[in-house]
Amino acid sequence: MDTMQFFIYLLICAGVTYLIRMIPFVLCRGRLENQFVRSFLFYVPYAVLGAMTFPAIFTSTGSVVSGTAGTIVALILSYRRKGLLQVAGGMCRSISDGTGPDAFIDKKSEGEDDYIQFMYDRKK
Question: What DSSP character marks residue 46?
Fold first, then answer.
């Protein structure tokens, strides 16, 4: 992709983002008087955040079983009113295999060296 094409795509993305945020201000100039609509819109950010993050919780570890275990631990710790750091630490500890951080650093997946060589050759 050349530089000119990149900036065209960037401007299109910026324009679409601006329109999405500006259209509600243009269409709804006055204060919303309907109590039902106001209460509905109050909860929309929480619903969207939940819809985006909840599926990723179960697939982030590569195993639905460990994702579920981490979620259960996080829910229990949250219910017991633990802090965010304690909940995150408990969740990470519940899905780890007990080998510590070196297990994630030292292990290489099969074919990783071939892929790195392929990407290096491709840039030449």
Answer: H
Tokens 């009113």 sit at which residue?
81
Interval 4-17: pLDDT, tens: 999 999 999 999 99
Q: C-alpha angle 94/100/101, rounded to 5°? A: 110
Q: What is the pTM of this model?
A: 0.47
Rounded to 5°, angle at Cα 56 from 90 and 86: 15
In terms of Cα–Cα distance, which of 88, 86, 91, 90 is closest to 66? 91
CA angle 31, 32, 33 (to 5 degrees): 110
Q: Are 97 and 103 in contact (CB under 8 A)?
A: yes
Other Cβ atoms less than 10 A from the Cβ of 89: the count is 14
What DSSP letter does each residue of 12-80 carry, written as one string? HHHHHHHHHHHHHHHH--S----HHHHHHHHHHHHHHHHHHHHHHHHHTTS-HHHHHHHHHHHHHHHHT
* pLDDT of res. 18: 93
